């Protein structure tokens, strides 16, 4: 039973070729491309409005030096949302349930924010490792703790996204299995279970969008500290 539950998170392979590459490139083909017309379609107008509002709210506390990251943050959030939402479809694979992929996204971006801080304002960047007013005997201990917390940030980013999506997929599969087993024996209970699964699916849609936003929001907060 344990193996069958977690089989859905294994990267599919066809003729020895990992299909995770196809799953990662598929979302780019679904985005509407800008047209040469003066008036855009409703879908393009909605997409433009959403990206504008998102970048305004995300970059509001960041100074002008960090606004160069607007395109990267908007593209990253839209990409992660697409991967999470496509993974909720039946017989599909969710690449963002793989910790290696999430760490591959989190570590380079976190490292870029740290390098920017060390290059532009090294004194301020190193000052985050020691809070102001710290008693002298606690200085070595606090420096070690703050350094560890700094290096844990990308791991927390990747694990948070992986754990939330994996837990949601497991719950949906467990409830669907229970409804399938209960249908011939207790139809009423099975119908109630299906209603619960429908509500859980709506919750997972919200989680798929919220986790993508949280991922990018935390990256912007890390950038704010170093810009």
UniProtKB/TrEMBL annotation:
Keyword Transcription regulation (UniProt): no
InterPro entries xrefs: ATP_synth_F0_asu (IPR000568), ATP_synth_F0_asu_AS (IPR023011), ATP_synth_F0_asu_bact/mt (IPR045083), F0_ATP_A_sf (IPR035908)
Gene3D superfamilies named among the record's database cross-references: ATP synthase, F0 complex, subunit A
Entry's Gene Ontology molecular function annotations: proton-transporting ATP synthase activity, rotational mechanism
Top-level taxon in the UniProt lineage: Eukaryota
GO CC list: mitochondrial inner membrane; proton-transporting ATP synthase complex
Alphabetical list of Pfam families matching this protein: ATP-synt_A
Catalytic activity field: H(+)(in) = H(+)(out)
Family: Belongs to the ATPase A chain family.
Protein name: ATP synthase subunit a
Organism of provenance: Ammodytes personatus
Gene: ATP6
């Amino acid at each position: 039973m344990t193996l069958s539950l977690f089989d859905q998170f294994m990267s599919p392979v066809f003729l020895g070729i990992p299909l995770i590459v196809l799953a990662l490139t598929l979302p780019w083909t679904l985005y509407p491309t800008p047209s040469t017309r003066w008036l855009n379609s409703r879908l393009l107008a909605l997409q433009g409005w959403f990206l504008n509002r998102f970048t305004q709210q995300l970059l509001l506390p960041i100074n002008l030096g960090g606004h160069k990251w607007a395109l990267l943050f908007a593209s990253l959030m839209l990409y992660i949302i697409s991967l999470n939402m496509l993974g909720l479809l039946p017989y599909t694979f969710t690449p963002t349930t793989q910790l290696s992929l999430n760490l591959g996204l989190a570590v380079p971006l976190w490292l870029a924010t740290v390098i920017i801080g060390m290059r532009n304002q090294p004194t301020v960047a190193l000052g985050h490792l020691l809070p102001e007013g710290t008693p002298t005997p606690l200085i070595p201990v606090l420096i070690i703790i703050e350094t560890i917390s700094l290096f844990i940030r990308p791991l927390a980013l990747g694990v948070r996204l992986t754990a939330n999506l994996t837990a949601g997929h497991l719950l949906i599969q467990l409830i669907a299995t229970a409804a399938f087993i209960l249908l011939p024996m207790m139809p009423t209970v099975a119908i109630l279970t299906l209603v619960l699964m429908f509500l859980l699916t709506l919750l997972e849609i919200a989680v798929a969008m919220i986790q993508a936003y949280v991922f990018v929001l935390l990256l912007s907060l890390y950038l704010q500290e170093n810009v």
